[in-house]
Amino acid sequence: METQTPLEPPLAPAPATRPGEVIDAHTHLFTVGLLEEVLSKEPPEAMKRFREGLKTRKWGRPGREQTLPELTPEETAAFYVERLAAAGVSRAVVMSVMPDSQWTRDFIVAAKGHVHALCNVDPRDPGAADLLEREMAAGFKGVKLLPVNRCYRISDPACRPFFEKANELKASICIHYGVTVDPTGDLRYADPIDLSPVARDFPEIPFVIAHFGAGWLDSVLRLAYQCKNVCVDTSGTNNWMDYHVPKMTLAEVFERTLTAIGPERVLFGTDAGTTAAYRTWIKFQQVRTLEEMGLSDHDRDLILRANAVRLYKLEA
Questions:
Q1: pTM for the predicted model, two decimal places
Q2: Is the pLDDT of residue 2 over 50?
Q3: Which helix (H) or strand (E) holds 160?
Q4: What CATH number matches the domain at 23-311, 3.40.640.10, 3.40.50.620, 3.20.20.140, 3.40.250.10?
């Protein structure tokens, strides 16, 4: 008689977080099952990078690819929570890169509040508003937009119905501006200043600019001066600093940002995925930087935990 491997026990619901804990407000998720679902909806000639990743079972930057997990959504949730706990992280927010993913919906349900997600929508799509409404009802905590990667302007009037719906649903929005490792990205769409008329006209929507603007920090801070609903996350290696003129250190990036917009609009993140090891070094680097800057316990907690809870409504 064949012996079956017992299934992982379901996760217990996540408890409320407490001051001093850490929430990673910008992570990613790639698995074999997720890529299979994404590509099943696309023509054979589309998304070559994704198809190559699925074929080789590898994902990541060229030359640094790691093995894609072959796990169900339920297994992935248990795996994700275990690696967060090992890194001393209480919760995480996953940034979806493709729209309308049942695999990700199933993952959210299985994660029981330990891991949340922002959905992915193309705001130019005539069905974008309806899709956002369905995704928010399914448990997503907001939406991730990729204007640089998908080559569009958020100020495009075609996006207006989407933002009207986001405003109605009180959906928070994270946006990738600036440089990108995606070879199909176009830097003509990289400047966060393009968000100005939208952030101005929808002051109740929190807009979180990822990666300190990924090389466009000056534009982010000017925009945030004008629009008090513009925030930043600190996620990633922030290696855009290697190309920034004049030279800046991470401490200087934090200092400029905190001076300009205050700790209430800064969210910690690592940009960690599921193929490589969790980016504990980024967590260490950023926490240590905040400590060395002499921030109060209250202000550090805002950045490392409380702002994510508030802006993404993680405990609502």
A1: 0.94
A2: no
A3: helix 160-169
A4: 3.20.20.140
